[in-house]
Queue: 4 jobs
Job 1
Amino acid sequence: MSSIFQGLKPSLLWKHFEQILKIPHCSTNERALGDYIISTAERLNLSWKRDRVGNVVVEKKASAGQTEAETVILQGHMDMVCEKNSDVAHDFAKDAIKAEVKGEWVQAKGTTLGSDNGIGLAASLAVMEDGSLVHGPLEFLFTVDEETGLTGANKIESGFLKGKKLLNLDSEEEGAFTIGCSGGADSEISFPLKRKKQSGQELYRLKIHGLRGGHSGLDINQGRANAIKLLARMLWQALKKFSFELVRMEGGNKRNAIPREAWADLLLEPDQIQDLSIFLQKDFEKIQFEYKAVEKEAKFSLEKSDGQEEGPLTPESQASLVNFLFSLPHGVIAMHPEIKELVETSTNLAIIHTLQDHAQIICSNRSSVASSLEATRNAITALCELGKAKVNQLEGYPGWTPNLHSPLLKTLKEVYKRTFQKEPEVVAVHAGLECGIIGEKFPGMDMVSFGPTIEHPHSPEERVHIGSVEKFWKFLAAVLSELAA
Ligand SMILES: [Zn+2]
């Protein structure tokens, strides 16, 4: 049978990737793909084990003469993000992904391709199968459900791996080594509200909208505005000149997104509306000027509203809520002192939702340094103490603190330079990765992540660069050989 990947190199890797495309494997539905990995291991006479949640480990003995070498772990996640264009008929639970070669790239037809992390898995399977490689003892770790909850990594038991060096194959830029990620944890705040009787004024809605939002980690250093922060700022300023009464406030809807919209319902004397509108307009023009490079669609409106059931906040309660929101931190707290452009610590004021007697406020905090994450959360707790609010600091996930002096990194850099006559880039990401969790479970694990070039992962535009896959493989083979020496 002819393959769509005919002629692509390395053929063993592409052969396994083609098989992976035929097996549905959206997050939490990785069983069949695990079975394929196990059947491959059995065909090759390699031992394997599968844990309770479905993570699989395959072991391969060292190639001849390399038995003294240290064990190296190759790791990737089995699940893929399943997204398709609305005009595409595709059932991710049973249909094979239809891929095609388009110039220098492989892409799916209207769906995600699953090259994240399918190419990494295919590379592991190819290393399992290839008898010509030089390597020490190997462990291949295939985890479940990275994309929606890092569940597989979270549930690995401490005895599941023997190796102390791990190559994670889930990076998306050939020539860049990832050596760190942020840990994260949310702060859930319950801010007490006091209300009074209705006062019979008219209800207006002040709304901020049209902001870009984005990922609370990856986009936090893009200079984007936070709708809740802007709303709090405008209310705080307006309260110095006008006497309105706050009834409700809403903003943001996802913990891991920068809020794009927020609004507040205010009770006003009708004769105030014109002056307040002019005041807010002038204020907003300054904000638009501040954000002119990034928030071109930012808008505000002040319009009649309805549906008021609860009474407005008391003047004290309203002032303390607005003060609290205006002072809560949002954005980058610290940049990494050594790794260029890496955000080390940040916080996202993600959600506000007012109820009868309290407001729910959620901040998502991230840092690659555990103590810095804790300090950020403590600062939020301190503000809560000032504002007499309760805070629930949820348990989060651990970061992976970049180690620029890692012996594994040193070896990989040398091998890369020798193989391609070029310096690799060393990066870290301000988001959670499996390595953060694995590093915490297996203290002393030396880890580096790399992979081929994948563009637009998690979207139907996802594509993997064919030439970069060949380079990725060549590098992987050279690294395994070097680590066995
Ligand atoms: Zn991935």
Job 2
Amino acid sequence: MRNKITVIGAGHVGETVAYNCARMELGDVVLLDVIEGMPQGKALDAYQSAPIFGFDARVHGTNDYADTAGSDLVVMTAGLPRKPGMSRDDLLNKNTEIVADCVRRASQVSPDAILILVTNPLDAMCEVARRVSGFPRERVLGMAGVLDSARMRAFMAMELGVSVEDTHAFVLGGHGDSMVPLPRYSTVAGVPITELLPADRVDALVERTRKGGGEIVSLLKSGSAYYAPGLAVAEMAEAILRDKHKILPCATYLQGEYGIRDTYVGVPVQLGRRGVEKVFEIELTPEERTALHASADSVKSLMDMLPASFEPAMA
Ligand SMILES: NC(=O)c1ccc[n+]([C@@H]2O[C@H](COP(=O)([O-])OP(=O)(O)OC[C@H]3O[C@@H](n4cnc5c(N)ncnc54)[C@H](O)[C@@H]3O)[C@@H](O)[C@H]2O)c1
């Protein structure tokens, strides 16, 4: 039997997630949005590419949560994107309302699903989903590190003129300006970039990675990035649904790892059919550890602004 994947929010990121999951034959996809007709139209269009591409996965558009029942994976992309000049944190109040409502409805009909959050501000929205769904931390995680690492890899390949396939990058921390790219663990064919580039070029790569989302927002003028974000989610979905035990940086609820407790922060985790199977604690220098803690503190201050309680999913 095929997996069932629900994507909530059929905007730029949602449609890209849905299309990539179908194209990779990760399962049948249900694409849901509040706008009537729009998810149905996009789903039909996506499915009509199946005969050309040659993938066997249905794509179904809907406005009704009943159609999402029994999903193995629910990807949450509904909410407002940034406008030029806005930080991800400026989206907190409106997107909290949207995410709480969508997660409540989705988790009621798919109580065994794994939730991947995409909506910004990412780490705080993961916490909203965890509280509303009541799911264990293994089944509520966020996409940010895979995207931020891909951005850093793209910048490394551009800077060094090498194949992106030879690059590997590690970005930890919250999904915001306080994220922590780790040049020591970022390599080209196994060689750290700190040995390949002068310090000022490494610093420039780190800074461009931190501002990678904002760079696209100001170029686009309306909306934010979606090709790389959509594919980053599909990579996580594949690791989970194909039980690959793949190690990817994901926003995860830490309970003492890295000396951080009760906060979502991006760290390397092993993803498989149960969701987050293991949190990896890599060696950090005192400076890297301080930066990770500062990033966790900024996530925590945002989490402190969330409502004290949410109506739970099973009420
Ligand atoms: N985590 C990341 O790395 C990352 C990357 C890119 C975008 N994002 C975030 O993802 C979110 C979506 O971005 P986008 O570019 O797709 O935006 P978009 O405006 O193109 O799409 C959002 C969609 O959500 C829908 N929606 C709104 N309220 C809804 C509700 N209650 N129920 C169902 N659908 C609802 C809208 O109708 C719209 O189609 C934004 O918050 C953005 O900041 C996160």
Job 3
Amino acid sequence: MTVTVLFAAPEDNWDAYEAPLRTAFAETGIDARLVRDAAPEAVDYMVYAPGGTVQDFRPYTRLKAVLNLWAGVENIVTNDTLTAPLARMVDEGLTEGMVEWVTGHVLRHHLGMDRHILGQDGIWRSGTVPPLARDRTIGMLGLGELGGACGQALARLNFNVMGWARSRKSIAGLDCRAGADGLDAVLSAAEIVVLLLPLTDATENLMDAARIARLPAGAVIVNPGRGPLIDDAALLAALDTGQVGHATLDVFREEPLPPAHPFWAHPKVTVTPHIASETRPKSAARVIAENIRRGEAGEPLLHLVDTAAGY
Ligand SMILES: NC(=O)c1ccc[n+]([C@@H]2O[C@H](COP(=O)([O-])OP(=O)(O)OC[C@H]3O[C@@H](n4cnc5c(N)ncnc54)[C@H](OP(=O)(O)O)[C@@H]3O)[C@@H](O)[C@H]2O)c1
């Protein structure tokens, strides 16, 4: 039977996703009608991203699942009109990109690259040789698809990686913690802390003044997770006292980051414009096709969001 798949992501995503989705549907053997417009009661599956045309899901009475294009779901999970299952994006390309970005930014701070790259002024600064990764502790907050992969990549470089998640994980090469005590232990040891948590009621402002104060003096914060994980005012204060040595931030409470925001001009802040990684259409289309195949075969969907937990 033909299933109707509504592409309800913003218009400018269509060009990138149309061909990969059609190819993936054909390769998966799905008989799908991929459309950008349909009578709501005719739609079986919805490919979704925030900023599209659909805000009210109630008219979509036949909807079997909403398949989110992005990993983060904070913009849809609180939508009370959505009662169909919601799957988030887990995409090998997205994960690979995040591993590269996190590894690059961690190595920048670990090796103190700025001191040498920015000091090309004819002055021979007899600096110190960076320590080995084995003598540096990284804190990975969030040990899901992205945090787990980034933590393992850093562990393969010999970093001492301590991780923290809601549930106690067992990941080869990582010292995994959970709970409030676990967070304290990770924060008090982490010279570089990476935030790869989803934004939920429980994680908003997780990095507040008290938690930032637990970090070793001069620690670096790398945030490719979500802006509101950090209390901005507390971070700015900690940068000014030297409690935080540098913050590399890819995500912000307001995006684009407003031109007047103090992060832009702060000498100890690196701003990147939410480019840590993104869903890659070709591999992501295969994930979406596989979920539709599963839905039609009566098999459990992959990567379902726990709406009560918010991620
Ligand atoms: N900047 C970018 O370009 C970009 C790109 C993609 C994604 N992201 C962000 O990265 C986030 C993580 O993605 P993901 O695919 O790795 O998500 P995920 O697989 O759902 O993993 C989330 C991790 O956070 C942990 N967690 C959630 N709530 C927690 C809490 N209250 N206390 C402690 N740990 C908690 C989870 O613990 P459990 O393992 O116990 O469930 C899990 O380990 C996304 O939500 C998104 O915001 C950013």
Job 4
Amino acid sequence: MKQEVLVTGADAGLGLSLVKRFLHGGYTVFAGVYRSKDALLTLEGDYGDSLTLIPLDVADLESVRAAVRRVGERTGALDIVVNNAGIHLRNSKPSLEQLDLADQHLQQTMEVNAFGPLRVVQQFLPLLEKGQQKLVLNISSEAGSISDCRRENQFAYCMSKAALDMQSKILQNYLGPRGFKVLAVHPGWMRTNMGGLEAPLIPAESADGIFQLAARKWNADDPIYMDYRGELLPW
Ligand SMILES: NC(=O)c1ccc[n+]([C@@H]2O[C@H](COP(=O)([O-])OP(=O)(O)OC[C@H]3O[C@@H](n4cnc5c(N)ncnc54)[C@H](OP(=O)(O)O)[C@@H]3O)[C@@H](O)[C@H]2O)c1
């Protein structure tokens, strides 16, 4: 039977490349659509029933619940969830003195990058429990590494990814005995809306590496935090 995967934030960038890579690899893909399904619609003709578009705002619990219902209408089990959706407001590098703590972007970054994946895993857990692979693949960042941190600003983004890393470890502790593997993967610096034009990596290359990681046989006590090539990162 075909493996089934959910990718969040699939409208663009890495998420879109992951959808393409998993479809090419023979998976049934549920693509979480946040604002625009235009790019995904072009794939529907090529892959037919293997691709289902699911409206999904990971910052909104009701939206996540509705997504679970829609996926549940198509399948009784999900093998992999890729928590890819993320935001990094590009002009948000104020110094400590300039930082506006009343600005909603701080909270919004945590809502999407840190609590979003937790909402998704919690709500999709019944479907994931019935899947064969039981893989939670959180798209993190080197920006979440505390021991490697050299930045002096970008509080919201870095803190949100460090929180996602901690969440990955807690989920591994809790869900490992139930057969789950949780990964927190830095996708590399990619040429996307978030990464910008100067980034050295195209998202398709990162998606290919992440696809290879998803296809590996993992044990619960294997490392969690690594880049898209499987190179381990320090927490
Ligand atoms: N690019 C890099 O160099 C880099 C480096 C390290 C880590 N990452 C991580 O890699 C992941 C993908 O990044 P990317 O470069 O592909 O960024 P991107 O091009 O900005 O794509 C992010 C995707 O997430 C969607 N999204 C935003 N808010 C959402 C929400 N509330 N619910 C659901 N989806 C939402 C976006 O939708 P819209 O386009 O409609 O807004 C978009 O489809 C992120 O988690 C990011 O933190 C990226």
